[in-house]
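Readers of this paper often ask what the protein records in our data store actually look like. This encoding replaces a full spatial description with a residue-level series of whole-number codes. For reference, a complete record is included directly beneath this paragraph.
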Amino acid sequence: MIYIHKFHPQYLHPFQYKYMKILEENAIDYKLVDSQSPTFWEEIIDCSLFIMFLGQTPMHLQRQLSLINVLDNIVGIRCFPNWNTSWHFDDKISQYYLLKSQGFPIVSSHIFWDKDLAIEWAKSANYPQVFKLKGGAGSLNVIKVYNSKQAMKLISKMFGKGITDGNIPGVKLFKVYRNNIKTFMKNKIKYRLYTLGLRYGITENWSKHQGYAFFQDFLPNNDYDTRVTIIGKRGFAFQRKNRPADFRSSGSGIINFSPNNIDYRCLKIAFSISQKFNFQCMSYDFLYDLNKQMTINELSCQFVDSAIYSCPGYWDKNLNWHEGHFWPQYCQLQDLLDKPNLIQPAFPEKSKPALIRITL
């Protein structure tokens, strides 16, 4: 039996909803399950595939990593995402350690767990640098640092009271999202008040980041990044342009889906990393370094599904092109169920922004 873990006791995330509808369209049985249920461990005895959408709140991060670790590594239940794919989710420091350990190209970073060492480095570092919190999405937890004074203030903050998501000193939400007022308002509410909003009954505040400092070397002359998403043997890719007068591209929404603009080196590197680590699904954000070589900025196994569907096709690992529009959930289920002939239902091209109330 296939189990889909609920994002919330009363709601499904739109990403999960597509799994459910694809399974229904293909007459494949499934159940919705919640790990908070007292009968959860009895319910999953006959589970052959456990599907979980990864959230970025502290509550979701703690629960999903604990569940996937036990189910995948201890109980032996097949999970999506599995442990290899998910343990470093929303943790840019772990991602850096992982790729660096195997010699894969990743932006040079400076990670400190000791305040004095961080301060000493900041005094003589080459600026500008990019300061990041290890978690977060859409560039809200990213800022360019121009001098040692600014760097040391951030270091003192991180080894003192800490910084909450969306509250890095100097990051202006309106500047980040000035090209999209609706996104600005949504993220202002999301990051300044509650994680998912009182509307859904989830009132957990963002936890603080503290006790570390994370800087990346700034790479100039990058007007865009290249997002490559590997799902099994498929490689989807597009360019994300920077916001106007900004160095950040993540969350800009300014996307070029033309396959003619993709540097094939990105695809080759992404395929090799996914194969090395046996990732079921992974997206990689590429930039050019000072020598015009491809280097990875970040990676994530969770992403916006409509961006993948908007790609006009994908490359296989031999870089052959396959035309068509495919939802990532459809491709993932093809692989997980070993059913290449699954029917793909028609969905709106843009996912609904709100959680979907469960009426089953």
Residues 190-205 have pLDDT under 50 and may be disordered. Residues 309 and 326 are 5 Å apart (CA to CA).
